Amino acid sequence: MTVEIRPLAASDDRQSFRSGDEALDLYFHRYAAQNQFRYHIGVTYVAVAEERILAFATVSPATLDAEGLPSGKPMPPYPLPVLRLARLAVDALAAGRGYGKALVRHCIELAERMRDEVGCVGLVVDAKPAAADFYRRLGFEVIALVEGESEQRPVPTPCSCRWVRCHLGGGRLGAVAGSVHAVAPRKSAPADSKQR
Ligand SMILES: CC(C)(COP(=O)(O)OP(=O)(O)OC[C@H]1O[C@@H](n2cnc3c(N)ncnc32)[C@H](O)[C@@H]1OP(=O)(O)O)[C@@H](O)C(=O)NCCC(=O)NCCS
C-alpha cells in the first residue's frame, strides 16, 4: 500500500476519519478545510492511502517570545518565527503504524524550508500529556514554562505567543518550546516521510 503525505484537498473525505479524540475529530470534520481554504490560517497535511485519510497534521506560522535559548545561542530580542504543529491525529484503525511519526517528520521538513526561505527557528508543539512521550521519542525536549499558560487543547488560531524559551539544535532546525508539555526535536528526522 502506497501512502502519500500531501496537503488536504477540498474534495477529500474527512467525515470517515476517527482518531478517538472527539475534539480532534470534530476539528478535522468541521474546521480544517475552512481554516485552510477560506481563512488561510493553517494548512493541514494528510497521510492518504487509496483515497482514505489515515492521519492529519495542521500547521500554522506563529511567533515565540523567547527570553533565552537553552543551546546558549544568543538571539535578538524579537518575537522569533516558528512553525506551530497545532493538531495531529491518526485514525484509530491506522494507529501504531508510523503515520504519526511520518507526519511530524514532514512538519520538521516544512519548518526547515521555512527557515531557509522566510526565517523560522523551529517547530513548536503544545503536546497533550498523553502524547508527550510520543514527541520525546522523536527527539523533542520538554522546555520549561517561564510564564504563561497553555490550553491543553490548542484553539485553531494561527499564532500563540505563550512560549518563552526555545533552542536550536546543532546547526539544524529543531527548536521547539512551549508550555509544560511542549517538547522540541534536537535534530531533524530523516527525510523519509514522503511515502511509507
Ligand atoms: C499520538 C499519535 C499521534 C501517535 O500516532 P501513531 O501513528 O499511532 O504513532 P507512531 O506509530 O508514529 O509511533 C511512533 C513511535 O511513538 C510511539 N508512540 C505512539 N504513541 C505514543 C504515545 N501516546 N506515547 C508514547 N509513545 C507513543 C510508538 O510506539 C512508536 O515507537 P517506535 O518508533 O519505537 O516504534 C496517535 O496515537 C493519536 O492520534 N492520538 C490521539 C490524538 C493525540 O493525542 N494527538 C497528539 C496531540 S498533541
Can you describe this structure?
By secondary structure, this protein is α+β, with helices and mostly antiparallel strands. It has one domain: 3-Layer(aba) Sandwich (Aminopeptidase). It contains 3 helices and 5 strands, in the order E-H-E-E-E-H-E-H. The chain has helices at 22-38, 99-117, 132-137, and strands at residues 4-7, 43-49, 52-64, 80-90, 123-125. Strands 1-2-3-4-5 form a 5-stranded mixed beta sheet, with helices on both faces. The termini are close together. 41% of the residues are buried. The model is unreliable at 146-196 (pLDDT under 50). Bound molecules: coenzyme A (COA).
Strands, total number: 5
CA-CA gap between termini: 8 Å
Largest sheet: 5 strands, mixed
- The stretches of 5 or more residues where confidence is low (pLDDT under 50) are 146-196
Number of DSSP helices? 3
CATH topology: Aminopeptidase
Quaternary status: single chain
CATH architecture level-2 label: 3-Layer(aba) Sandwich
Named once each, the bound ligands are:
coenzyme A
Summarize the amount of helix as a percent range: 10-25%
Shape: globular
> Could you give the order of strands across the largest sheet?
1-2-3-4-5
- Radius of gyration from the alpha-carbon trace, in angstroms: 16 Å
Structural class: alpha+beta
Domains (count): 1
Helix and strand run: EHEEEHEH
What is the CATH C level class, in words? Alpha Beta
Q: Return the average pLDDT rounded to an integer.
A: 75
Estimate what percentage of residues fall within beta strands. 15-25%
